[in-house]
Specification:
alpha+beta, 2 domains, three-stranded antiparallel β-sheet, two-stranded antiparallel ribbon, globular, CbrC family protein, UPF0167
């Protein structure tokens, strides 16, 4: 059985938030070979949600939970985009609260975890995000490049606009 497709998280296996593991999903009660292993904000502690129950919104509905905090997102043009992101999209693993970037009035798709080595070819395209990050963290451009290491204490998260394909960058620190 093919995994569902998520508009804002195109490869949740690569990101490590959907893993191959046999489980009985607590939502649909079906035996599944894949399980969600990422952030889920609910009053109940829930484990073992399958990707199909994320995609159809039944997991968020059953547990009155969110896969992304609605206050930790850029603004978008339509409420339906926010609903899809927080109720039907697997999140990503981050040091702090994850933040979801937007562009062209819609949320971007998360592409991956990055350090400077993985994105230096995108420096010109990411110029405004890099400037914002340097200002937010009181860093010089050179410090930013030295500190941003994939799987390090200063982690980058690369996003891409689904409309114009522009890349965006978010970071957080341990």
């Amino acid at each position: 059985m093919n995994l569902p497709t998520f508009k804002y998280n195109l490869d949740p296996i690569k990101l490590g938030v959907i893993i191959e593991e046999e489980t009985i999903c607590p939502v649909c009660k079906k035996e599944r070979d894949f399980v969600y292993d990422g952030p889920f904000y609910s009053l109940e502690e829930v484990e073992g949600i399958c990707p199909w129950c994320i995609a159809d919104g039944s997991a968020a509905q059953k547990y009155e939970g969110d896969f992304q905090d609605s206050y930790s997102c850029d603004e978008v043009d339509k409420e339906e985009y926010l609903d899809e992101l927080i109720y039907r999209t697997p999140g990503y693993t981050s040091w702090q609260q994850g933040y979801w970037l937007s562009h062209c009035g819609d949320f971007c798709s998360i592409i991956g975890y990055v350090g400077w080595e993985e994105i230096k070819h995108l420096e010109n395209e990411l110029e405004s995000d890099i400037k914002r990050i340097c200002d937010d963290y009181n860093l010089t451009n050179e410090d930013f490049k030295n500190f941003l290491v994939n799987d390090g204490d200063f982690q980058g998260y690369l996003f891409q606009c689904n409309c114009c394909k522009k890349h965006r960058l978010h970071v957080d620190a341990s």
